[in-house]
Amino acid sequence: MWVNGVARLNYLSEAGYYSSMKKKKIGLLYGGRSGEHEVSLRSAASVINNLDPDKFEPIPIGIDKIGIWHLQQRGSFRSIPGQGEVLEIIKNSRPLALVPGKGFYQGEERLEIDVIFPVLHGTFGEDGTIQGLLEVVDIPYVGAGVLASSMAMDKEKAKILWQKEGLPVVDFLVVRDASAGAVAAIEQTFNYPLFVKPAAGGSSVGIHKVDSHAELKPALADAFNYANKLLAEPAIDGRELECSVLGNHRPRAFPPGEILPQHGFYDYNSKYIDPEGALLAVPADLPAETAKLVEETAVRAYLALEVSGMARVDFFLEKKSNKLLINELNTLPGFTSISMYPKLCEKGGLPYPDLLEQLIELAMESHAEKNRLTYSFE
Q1: Which of 6, 125, 134, 177 has its CB 3.0 to 4.6 Å from that of 141, i.e. a possible disulfide?
Q2: What percent of the chain clears pLDDT 70, i.e. is strictly above it?
């Protein structure tokens, strides 16, 4: 296995984390207070089913829609016709508590957890809040840290940073209310069709393609249900490309894939509900130099936000100009059975179970690096 040019197993052994004699206990956080709660239930089912049972013991922790954490039995599955398997959240009378510096407790009993895998999407999952909580608890966790998570979640701030790095992004206008002035500013900046979207969010929740003046204000009103700040963007006539990136200081990009929406744009229904909503070309049919540019740009975008662990970077490739534009970066991409991130990794030679193992190891590596720092001065 590889990690930043160092033999991973040796590195982790020296850090005191790796033991071939004992299974690692992996706490799976899923559900959560987010518009992407249901997506998380599907992602969690896929993750738990693909963890190597000889190496890892999953400890499912379901977060209900009001934010209470419930320890689960591993077999809390159910199937939804046409949507696949989901991991349920069974509420119990003894919710979990987190103690700073000490970990997770159920009553007086401390849970033994080696690594947390936050299989969470959207608000309170990939925006830096859960990451900050896990930092305070002092437990390794999969994925980006507090700063990278919060920057990537805020689409405006991410684009500003990418622009400063000389990276190409889709044009945007920040919208803070649905007033007549905001409508006028949007229409003066962009022609129809255009998109409005929450500045913080994912899975296309709250995103609207707007084809006319009559549709704009209702679209703004709905999008403001999910965020206090929106972005207006032009509708790009181009191919939708996605690239999986994995790693800490020296990340690796996998060959990109392409989304081929079948009914308009790639919305929530196309991603998770309608099995015929979109076709996934894995890998994308691209010239070698274009595929290389996508991978290189994805890594640059990843490093610019100081992401660790993983991310999926989404692009548009304009049809007329052949110009590559960054759309957004997702630090906790979907992990369902049809999600692009694990599919691209698998096509690039990293099967789903091995991907999960490497993500866990990257989490332990990051935690070990932080623990080598001095946090007091006398």
Answers
A1: 134
A2: 86
Q: What's the rounded Cα separation, in Å, for the pair 96 and 175?
A: 39
Cα 294 to Cα 9, 146, 321: the distances in Å are 30, 26, 15
Three-state SS at 119: strand
- Residues 238, 316: Cα–Cα separation, whole Å: 6
Phi, psi of 184 (to 5 degrees): -65, -40
Burial class (CB in 10 A: 0-12, 13-18, 19+), 222: middle
Q: What is the pLDDT of residues 260-283, one digit of tens each?
A: 876 555 555 545 455 555 688 999
Alpha-carbon separation of residue 94 from 70, 83, 106, 112, 350 (angstroms): 7, 31, 6, 17, 39
Give me the architecture of the 173-234 domain, per CATH. Answer: 2-Layer Sandwich (3.30)
Domain 152-169+236-354's class? alpha beta
Class of domain 2-142: alpha beta
The residue type found at 73 is Q
pTM for the model: 0.87
Q: Which residues does residue 169 pair with via DSSP β-bridges, in sequence order?
A: 326
The structural domains of the chain, with segments of one domain joined by +, span: 2-142, 152-169+236-354, 173-234
Measured in degrees and rounded to the nearest 5, phi and psi for residue 279 equal: -100, 145
In one-letter notation, the amino acid at residue 226 is: Y
In sequence order, what DSSP letters do the residues of 67-117 get, joined into one string?
S-EEE--TT-EEEETTTEEEE-----SS--EEETTTEEEETTEEP--SEEE
